[in-house]
């Protein structure tokens, strides 16, 4: 990092614009910020820090009051810093939050903080305008946080004196901030988490072994041991279960033999009991037999009555037919009587009535036409009423149409005007609708930019790590290029007795190039993300310019209302044309309706005259009836009723004759079958099911008698009175079977238990075998985790993070001792100790001073004021060198040392200045901040910077 130019306005004690050109001041590598106490020397360093990180170091950063109270209220507070980092030159402009006068009215308003970063050389990407993004870019380029920068680049007055005298806890906090030991804390946490996971796995496996042990005990029916078994309990269980299995097998064999004996006795007893029961049942069946003669007589009589039953059924059917015929005859007689007929010659009178009805046909046609004409008169009346009503409606419609035409014309004009305004409103509508998406796009582009910055930062970290690893392994890389007999490029010796040997994981130039290419690719993606964010911002600004101060919702509503009204233009046009056409159509239709009404009135008059003349002729022909048609219909109905009555009378006579014939036939069939009358035959008749039942009953009697006789013939020597103790034999056999079943069940149970115990015992031994390496591995991991976390075998009680900090502090002590010895003329040097503290407290961060005059170590708190300054300055410079190497080594081209020179005498000051002169090697620029007059005499060239109303002057002096 090299500073070029600093500009500040209304910042700190400086009310007017001030400029510091570091290129001029640092041309020889050394310059001085000189002035009395309170002249504002440290404020320039605060301005540099504020421009880079937006904050100032020390307690001044907690106040957050950066604006000059003496500046003109209209003058804004700003700081501009131009610098080069990693061959990229850029300018940062920042303004803190401050109160300014309101542009309208009285009082003040808060001006928010702003920041911008503009690329000048070495980079062509878009600038950055967000405060957080500027901070991320600066930290990414510098490779250090603001805390590291304040400690390493702006060596603050008093800070390292406190660090020199601090205890272990305070010193550890500062070193953690500077060296970033989070990754080692992650390693400690990783080991602790790994131990927890391994312990959980081990506990699970132990629990599995305990579960298998419990299942072994459950299968064997014994209690499990309280502690882990070494195999003796398991062997005993297997032996006991084997002995129990042998005893159960012997008991099962004895019980099975006894069961077979009792089963043979039971079978013989059951066979003899069955024979006795069969003989007993055969004798009982023969004794219970009855005479089947009545069944046989009933069956024979039923079979003789079979021919009489159908004849009797035919009589019943014919009687039903006769009943229906008589009923029809009665209905026909009632119908003739209802029509007023009193004669006897049915068929002759029917012919006469038909002839009389035929003579009325001509008049009937006129009567039908008369009815149609009457209906037509009614229709004409209804139609005439409807036509008059329709004419009235047409007249009403023609009266309101002019008003509708005027209203439609007004709506049509409004729609045409909306259509004309639509194009102008469309531009603002598009801007209003796209505005939310543009806001979202800007947010997404900002998220993408932040992600690209994170990715670039990670790639940068990887690159720095690779470079650091390559530097650490540079000896191996240089050793690979050594050739026997050729001088070394470093020391010039042609002999190479012990060159560095290659190591696993060594980083070479190809790895560095790959990491650099990855970092450049991430940087390109970051530039693309910045361009996308700028495009999204411009797009959003364009939409807001189009909308102006208008509310997007009002613009959208106005456009939609105009669009909706414009869409009705063609509809309104069609409505207007339709109303004009309807006016013409209604006028023509009104004329047609008036003509139709006149025609109906003429037709009604003519038809009424014709109907009146025809009514006189029809009244003479209708007689007693309502009209001619009614009289003709009455004559035809009477003729039909007389014909039907004659037919029904003939049908009933025929049915009566057939019933008498069937009764004679049934009586003859009963006599032939041997019955005295038909009733006796019907009483003897049986259904088919009843006849089948009689046959089955007779056949069963015959089968029972034959079976009983056959059984007695088969078992001639069996006594039916013999009694056998079958129940006792069955009880003894059941007892033997139960004993055999119980013994078999016991054998099966012990067999399964033996198999189960053998299987589980093998599994248990396998689990014990697999647990041994896990327990060994966990013991090693547990011990290593304790060591890494400062416990167990760790005699120094140092965690890994503390160990790393101790190593860094040791490097700082070595680097600081080289300068302290020169500045103290060889008297003092730093001594670092990694021994544990008192009462077992953590060690590793002890830092004392070795006094060469006495040869003893002494606490830093015993140094005098000047000696403390020399020690603090040496420690600060040593720490700066170590941190610079940690963060890349090539960043710290500019360094500031703030105050403390007033405590030195002339000789010591000469020694300190010679040491600071050495810092200029390699192009480094060193800035001193002091009020000591002797420093001012040593560096004569100056640049004045005027402070506020106090009139004091700060001189920026360059050698």
Automatic annotation (TrEMBL):
Origin superkingdom? Bacteria
A GO molecular function held by the record: ATP hydrolysis activity
Kindly give the Gene3D superfamilies that the UniProt entry links to this protein: P-loop containing nucleotide triphosphate hydrolases
Please give the SUPFAM superfamilies that the UniProt record associates with this protein: P-loop containing nucleoside triphosphate hydrolases (SSF52540)
Record-linked InterPro entries: P-loop_NTPase, Rad50/SbcC_AAA
Give the keywords, sorted.
Answer: Coiled coil
- Residue ranges annotated as coiled coil are 684-711
Q: Which GO terms describe its biological process?
A: double-strand break repair
Q: Does the keyword Coiled coil apply?
A: yes
Would I find Coiled coil among this entry's keywords?
yes
Which residues belong to any copy of the Rad50/SbcC-type AAA domain?
A: 5-181
Give the similarity note: Belongs to the SMC family. SbcC subfamily.
Subunit structure of this chain's protein: Heterodimer of SbcC and SbcD.
Please identify the protein, giving its name as recorded: Nuclease SbcCD subunit C
Q: Which organism is it from?
A: Lentzea tibetensis
